Amino acid sequence: MRFGNRWVKRAVVSAAREEERHLLDIALQLLKRGDEKQARLTLKKASRVNPEGIRAELLLGLLLVSSDRDDLSESAAHFRKALKRAPDNVAVLNNLAISEVKLHRWDSAVKRWKRGLQLDPAAYVIRHNVWRCIWLHRRGRVRVPADAASQLRGLAGRCEPETPRESLNRGWLYCFSSAPRESDGSDRTRGGPGDSDGLILAGTGTGFVVAKHYVLTNRHVVRHEQLGLADMVRIVDPAETSRVRELECRIAAVSEHDDLALLHCEPLKAPPLPLAETVPPRQTEVIVLGYPMEDVLGRQIKSTRGVIVSLPNPSSADLVLFDASLNPGNSGSPVCDRTGRVVAVATLLYQLPSKLSAGIPAPAALAFVKEHLEDYGGDAPQPGEEKSLVDVDAQASRSTVMVRVYYHHPSRPARPSGAAVAAEGWYVADRTCIGCNGAGTTDCPVCLRGKIKVKKPVVIAVDPRTGEPVVQQRFFQRLCSNCNGTGNRPCLVCRGSGIEPPL
Q1: Is residue 158 part of a domain?
Q2: pTM of the predicted model, to two decimals?
Q3: Mean pLDDT for back-to-back runs of 10 residues, the chain (503 residues)
Q4: Residue 457 lies in a domain
Q5: How many separate domains does the chain show?
Q6: Could you give the 3-state DSSP secondary structure of residue 427?
Q7: Distance between alpha carbon 61 and the CA centroid of its chain, in Å?
Q8: Exposed, middle or buried: residue 466 (CB in 10 Å: 0-12, 13-18, 19+)?
Q9: CA-CA distance, 234 to 194, in Å (whole number)?
Q10: CA 350 to CA 355: how far, in whole Å?
Q11: What is the CATH number of the domain that holds 7?
């Protein structure tokens, strides 16, 4: 297969895409912790790993949409790189056009939007942004050259009816995701929805049956940090050996405290696994079952073994630590002891010199299940005697399922938001002021960095013949009285708030 500028085997492509997804997950966690610098380095690595992927470049560009002019140029460069990899991607065309508007590159911006509408005449984000640009021009907040203004009006003619001004007040709409995702064919959903349904596979995880028709998994599997709750969740039927049939679920409950979510699947017939009421002691042998790295390892269930190395500490993360390995796709896996009880729900992997995995303690999972299933306990299985890990594997695998998460293609309207820059489903709404790009101030028109040059006469010598002073005009710097030496003034558009006022 052609991969970037090389010819490689399909397995190499699949491995690179899996590593890219793993790095993207890490970057999102770093952003959640506020470590933007490290997140950007991780995203750049993800972009290098997959020279055909555009998701990392999209995120890198979005991180800089509310910055100074230099960062805006860098943001546009990331979108331009993504466009080079995917020339006809509507999301990238739209994002690059907005960056070029902010950089006053009007001809290029109009060209991007025009191409986007040719590819998708119903593209909501482009219609919205074209009308927003026109209204900003009408209000005198931006100066659009005559030729570009004429072309924008021509594009607006294709975007009838006019987008209401109340909607335009949400700001610029960037596309957060690149859907549909890149695929070599092996990533397409078998037996599930595809691009023709407007649904795109966003990720996979693991879950296990805890009661009749109910599956427990991680919250982060079904609720994306930026995209919100999944538009559709499906599980792969564990009773079918070919792992092709998918069963549709609904999200029954999501915990706000622990990384847990409960799914309801009426057609599911698998038996439930018992949840432990207490966490066993350290050095207890455990086995983890799940569906990691589907693209590389396939859809068959995998298991790893280890021992519990640390018990929950209420003063810290309140997690169980064990040394069985986890990989992307293991989120939500059951961690079972020799009696077949689930003692933890796998949730994350610590990247330490000696890798340790962590899980939500079973008592916390049990409390969550009981909170949302009033009749839980009547059909809950009881743990048996200790068995070999082979027997535990065989028993638990019948109740462990692959969870597949889908989101809609970005063609539906975004939801309103009050923040300056906020994720809205598949979109990022940017309400930063067009005059100052969110800074709240603009450069002082009188001075340079708070100082101005003044010319004063200076006596440099005395004429020996006449005794008259010899005067020379010299330049001196003094603080600007217009901005009090700060070099900037409050933005006249937003009055210093950094947020675009209503149109």
Answers
A1: yes
A2: 0.51
A3: 76 86 85 85 93 89 73 90 87 92 91 87 84 88 88 80 71 68 34 51 89 93 77 86 80 89 92 90 92 78 91 69 87 93 87 74 92 73 77 92 79 41 62 78 83 88 88 88 84 79 78
A4: yes
A5: 2
A6: strand
A7: 12
A8: exposed
A9: 12
A10: 6
A11: 1.25.40.10
